[in-house]
Amino acid sequence: MSTDATSLPRASARNRRAHKPRPPLAELEQTIGHTFADQDLLSRALTHTSKATGRNGSYQRLEFLGDRVLGLAVAEGLYAALPDADEGDLSRQLAGLVRRETCAAVAATWGVGAYLILGQGEVMGGGRRNQTILADVCEAILGAVYLDVGFDADRGIVQAHFRPAEPGTAPRGRDAKSTLQEWAMSRGLPIPIYAVAERTGPDHAPHFRMTVQVEGLEPGHGEGNSKRVAEQAAAADLLTRIGITAAGETAAETP
Q1: C-alpha to C-alpha distance for 154 and 145, rounded to whole angstroms
Q2: pLDDT (tens digit, 9 = 90+) per residue, 143-155?
Q3: Structural domain total, the chain
Q4: Nearest residue to 76 (alpha-carbon basis) of 61, 98, 56, 59
Q5: CA 187 to chain centre
Q6: Same domain assignment for residues 154 and 220
Q7: Angle formed at CA 67 by CA 145 and CA 173, multiple of 5 degrees
Q8: Distance between CA atoms of residues 143 and 67, nearest Å
Q9: Which of 121, 197, 215, 233 is deepest in the core (most CB within 10 A)?
Q10: How far is it, in rounded angstroms, from Cα 21 to Cα 25?
Q11: Is 222 helix (H, G, I), strand (E, B) or coil?
């Protein structure tokens, strides 16, 4: 008895995305501007805790290192590029260039999402587009480059993709939580209220889902590996829906 091919069940779009093979890492290396001598470093920098083998198999330790490497590379670039800037100006520029939103944006331009090594739950939950994961992996890649060949290569990557030598490239204004609070207060509304919607993961690697409520609005949602990061993501989510950027500039008029 033959079966009509048209009668066979078709895989859902989500399942097809979940099983889509990763592109060659050489393409990512070309985009970043560094070819790894130790390919295991790059693989680890792309591995989420949900897919890690062993305690140190994920990008977390590399993220810790890369965060410091990024800060030094950006600070060095700003110091050279802005000889007349005082400490306060340099600090504001630095904060804008190393913020998680900037790291996530750089990772997105690299197309990192397609290369991430994620557990099935993270894949189905949109992990390849998750801003916290993208930011973490961006820093982890910088940490991996540092271990692979040293700081000079990281300096070149940061200069090319974060552009600390170009004055004014750092996002201006306050962070998402501060912007949301100022927006609410300017309209006579109570301050935003943040709450933990869910906490998962082990004590050494927790994951938080937070909500933020502003009177009269649907709550914003965000997630991250700390309450602070998840709160910022929730505030940014709500700001986006009311037409305000995280830098505090109006993106669209809100009735």
Answers
A1: 6
A2: 999 999 999 999 9
A3: 2
A4: 98
A5: 31
A6: no
A7: 130
A8: 7
A9: 233
A10: 12
A11: strand
The pLDDT of residue 89: 82
Calculate the alpha carbon distances from 237 to 108, 152, 219, 230 in Å. Answer: 18, 36, 9, 10
The per-residue pLDDT for range 170-200, each reduced to its tens digit, is 444 457 887 888 788 777 778 889 999 999 9
231 is catalytic: no
Give CA–CA dist 97/85, Å, rounded.
16
CB 211 within 8 A of CB 220: yes
d(CA 142, CA 149): 11
pLDDT at 8: 46
Is residue 67 annotated as part of the catalytic site, yes or no?
A: yes
For residue 38, the model assigns a pLDDT of 97
DSSP state of 34: -
pLDDT at 43: 96
Contact of 223 with 217, CB cutoff 8 Å: no
- Name the catalytic one among 63, 122, 136, 139: 139
Q: So what's the pLDDT on residue 174?
A: 54
What is the rounded distance in angstroms from the CA atom of residue 74 to the CA atom of residue 217? 38
Residue 255 pLDDT class (50, 70, 90 cuts): very low
My answer on whether 151 and 202 are in the same domain is no
- Considering the domain architecture, whether residues 62 and 188 belong to the same structural domain is answered as no
Mean pLDDT over the full length of the chain: 83
Give, for 101, the enclosing helix (H) or strand (E).
helix 100-110
Residues 105 and 214 in one domain: no
Domain around 212: 176-242
Q: Is the pLDDT of residue 10 over 80?
A: no
Single out the catalytic residue among 67, 101, 148, 231. 67
The residues that bridge with 211 in the sheet, in sequence order, are 195, 221
